[in-house]
């Protein structure tokens, strides 16, 4: 057990560090549809979304650009106090029609992870490249959500491991190419369809310099796995303002380690009996 005197020294040092760093973690909110007519499990109504955005503004939260904030966290640079990021999955047109005007009015940056197959075939339910360009001019960032939104861990019938990995590589690389072709750049971020990945997929992200998100809840910190980052769902059953407030108040669990025979193991910072 650590002594009380040692705990006091460590806590004092932490106090100095916290005074220097305004915030060393980031909650990332995840949305899909902004609509009253789309599936409720993945939707917020325009009224609910307005309530969320008004709360962020009125409670003093600083909505930050997601990729810039991730770069700062990884480099152990402080974020603004009460920093939060906003993200959407699937590139639904309702984001443009109902969500974008609300965020634009409040000058909030946001990220949309797009699956490009419905965009390329010009589905009326999905964003167009021209709409994305318009949104980019007001803080929008567009990132990778694969071509066809596959469950990335599932092999097709008769598919070898090599064939599966080649197909997943095509799903990722094609979207990166399309982002560069139509928008002129890529933020090098990806959201895994259905939130799941494995070591091979995460290694692919790392090799390409892509930061990637799952759908597990939690805040991002410098200690996070940047190929499997957490987000907080804020749609459907998770759209109430009370649950949103809980997520925005979340903090990372601090872990400390000690060297034991050349290896390290996590320990509690302090324990007072």
Give an account of the 3D structure.
This protein has 273 residues and is α/β, with parallel strands linked by helices. It has one domain: TIM Barrel (Alpha-Beta Barrel). It contains nine helices and 14 strands. The strands form five sheets. Strands 2, 5, 6, 7, 8 and 12 form a six-stranded parallel β-sheet that branches. It has a two-stranded antiparallel sheet with strand order 1-11. Helix 4 links the parallel strand 6 and strand 7. The N and C termini lie close together (10 Å). The N terminus and C terminus are likely disordered.
CATH class bucket: Alpha Beta
Radius of gyration: 20 Å
| Oligomeric state of the chains present here | single chain
The number of domains is 1
Q: What's the CATH superfamily, by name?
A: Glycoside hydrolase/deacetylase
- CA(first)-CA(last) distance: 10 Å
Structural class: alpha/beta
CATH topology: TIM Barrel
One letter per element, helices H and strands E, the order comes to HEEEEHEHEHEHHEHEHEEEHEE
Shape: globular
The major sheet is characterized as: 6 strands, parallel
Strand content: 15-25%
Low-pLDDT parts are: 1-21, 260-273
Count of alpha and pi helical runs? 9
Mean pLDDT: 89
* CATH architectural arrangement: Alpha-Beta Barrel
Count all strands and give the number: 14
What can be said about this structure in brief?
With 273 residues, this protein is of the alpha/beta class.
